[in-house]
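Before a colleague's protein record goes any further, I have to sign it off. What it holds is a sequence and that sequence's fold in token form. My question to you is simply how this chain folds and whether the tokens agree. Thanks in advance; the entry in question is below:
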Amino acid sequence: MLTAHIIKTIQSLDKKKYRQKYNLFLVEGNKIIKELPTSDYEIENLYSIDPDNLVFKTQEIEKILPADLKKISFLQHPKDSVAVCKIPESRILKDVSIQLILDGVQDPGNLGTIIRLADWFGIEQVICSNDTVDVYNPKVIQATMGSFIRVNVYYTDLEEYLAEYQYPIFGTDMNGENIYETKFPEKFSLVFGNEGNGIRPSTEDLITKMITIPRFGRSQSTESLNVSMSAGIILGDIFSKK
């Protein structure tokens, strides 16, 4: 039974301080939830309006009413199930060929889309500055469409991390070398900056080379591209050359 205390606790997980307090986050929708048993994520509680659509050998599923689902869901139109999951211990992967680095990305949709892109292109890790939006934000989790399960996201002090990084670091900016003329090595990091301010100066000082997506429009009046859109274009070009 969903008590008022349980509902209040789950509702509080939309805020980072309560996710950290309880060490829990929410995953919504059967499509993503069905992938959890084969991942490193542990389910604390599972609530569904139709448990028969979820088959878990080791997980008890609590049946709830659609009205209760609306109370614990962060979606405007919740469909089926909600899983309350434990936040795993943070770790960093040491030996990856290509990784993305996010310097102050604030929009949950952008982070979720970038994680999804990383998964699509087989990139195992995304390194984030400490002020980048929390990966366990419900909007980020939803935007990843399950890709958060397969991509390691690690938060750290970028200045310290990049100072010790041994491979080339490419930064994305409006001014830089044309990506279509850039040769990328086997191992490198690709940095994307904040939506409004770009890459901060302390990070930029540690970048090996700045690259840019050239504009082909006749008017040349578009100021910039959305950061997740830029990531998609750049990754598409990098992997087309492999």
Remarks:
- The mean pLDDT is 94.
- The first helix runs from residue 4 to 11.
- Residues 169 and 208 are 5 Å apart (CA to CA).
